[in-house]
Description:
It is globular, with a radius of gyration of 22 Å. By secondary structure, it is an alpha/beta fold. α8 packs across α9. A seven-stranded mixed β-sheet has the order 5-4-3-6-7-9-8, sandwiched between helices. Helix content is 46%, strand content 15%. β1 (56-57) and β2 form a beta hairpin. The protein has helices spanning 2-25, 31-49, 66-79, 93-105, 121-124, 127-132, 143-152, 168-178, 208-218, and strands at residues 56-57, 60-61, 83-87, 110-115, 133-137, 158-162, 187-190, 222-224, 240-243. It folds into two domains: 2-49; 52-243, Vaccinia Virus protein VP39 (Rossmann fold).
Amino acid sequence: MKQRRIAILLGVLVILSCIFLYDRLWGPKSESSLDEHLINDFIKLYHSSGIHYRTRWLGIPTLENPCDMWAIQEIITETRPDFIIETGTYKGGGAVFYASILQNSNPAGKVITVDIKPQYDEAAKLKLFQDRVEFIEGSSVSDEVINRIADRIKGGKVMVTLDSDHHMTHVLNELRLYSKFVSPGSYLIVQDTSHNGHPLKTDYGKGPMEALVEFLKENKDFERDPSREKFLLTFHPGGYLKRVR
């Protein structure tokens, strides 16, 4: 009798296992849920590999993935800003990349990049950087920096990308300050919204995504543009904001 019960139990377990596997692998499911699962797994795999630390533009580290870089170059080419404001210069790879695209989409375009200290020695050797990039040293949310940028960009079409301190309080402060610079039809890009389990760095704490959600509650001039995530791999989910009014 005992052996029969064990056999029945094992049979039930096998049947349940088969049902589970069928449902996961071949059963009906919404395309969006399957895509989200696969995409998040790949983003985590890609990030854990550290490839973004070895990704360079013209020899300068960018800390980006090529899908986001491609999406950003499409935005620059379509909108042709006169100024791209970047917070978080680091090694200067991002600034050089933006300058490269501007060189062909808006020959008069400039990149204004902000960081608390200069670390871009190699980038500064490039003529492209010398001709098109303007560095401002200081906190991205200080009155001095904000006033200098406001004076510099007067009358120009402006795009902004935020990539400095990623904690929620700082990013929300940046969003409130720099959103005023963005021209209608142009973009405000909040980088690394993937932090804090979206799907990366689950123990990070409130960061860019949480700041973005709060910002969109109080500012109706911007809307998310999910079309910019068409390459699926992104470190900035929901972070491509278009100024619609």
